[in-house]
Amino acid sequence: MERNQRAAGYRLDVSTDSSFGNYVSGFQDLDVGNATSEVVTDLSPNATLLLRVRAYDSSAPAASSGAIAVTTMPILSSRPDASPARSRVRR
Length: 91
Fold this sequence. Notes:
Layout: E1 9-15, E2 30-33, E3 37-43, E4 48-56, E5 68-71, E6 85-90
Antiparallel strand pairs: 1-2, 1-4, 3-6, 4-5
């Protein structure tokens, strides 16, 4: 996503459904400052998630972006100590 030059920062929502009624813990209206990416951790493998962002400035937040769907990677190891799925979100 191209950075909005007037934005003071961005807020991120990560949901398990398209109506944004069920959020991934810690990712509802998360203030990510003016970063253009965010790491989302502790996700289930092969999970489909929906993400949206909205810019904000000193006056008010903007409307949310359109949602995008992403699917987490499967666990590639059968080791019991394999790390949980991770996904990098680019805005």
